[in-house]
Amino acid sequence: MPWSNFYVQLIGQGNANTVPFNGQMGDVLGVTLGAGSPAAISAARTYLADKYGISLP
Q1: What are 28-50's pLDDT values in tens digits?
Q2: Could you tell me if 46 and 40 are in contact, meaning their C-beta atoms sit under 8 angstroms apart?
Q3: Do residues 15 and 3 touch, judged by C-beta distance below 8 A?
Q4: 9-46 CB burial, b ≥16 within 10 A, e <16
């Protein structure tokens, strides 16, 4: 069930039909979809992978 309003303070809390996130969250990164979004998504994934020393699929 989606939220009617989605606020930053709700990230990780889940909703009435989900289990809330229980852990640490390092970064929240938003990407506006549209023209150029594949490049922006790729850049965001590279940034996070480099920052945390992980590989993303």
Answers
A1: 777 778 888 899 989 988 998 99
A2: no
A3: yes
A4: eeeeeeeeeeeeeeeeeeeeeeeeeeeeeeebeeebee
What's the whole-model pTM score? 0.53
Nearest of 46, 14, 32 to residue 55 by alpha carbon: 46
CA angle 17, 57, 15 (to 5 degrees): 10
What pLDDT digit, counting tens, does each position of 2-28 carry?
556 666 666 666 666 666 777 777 777
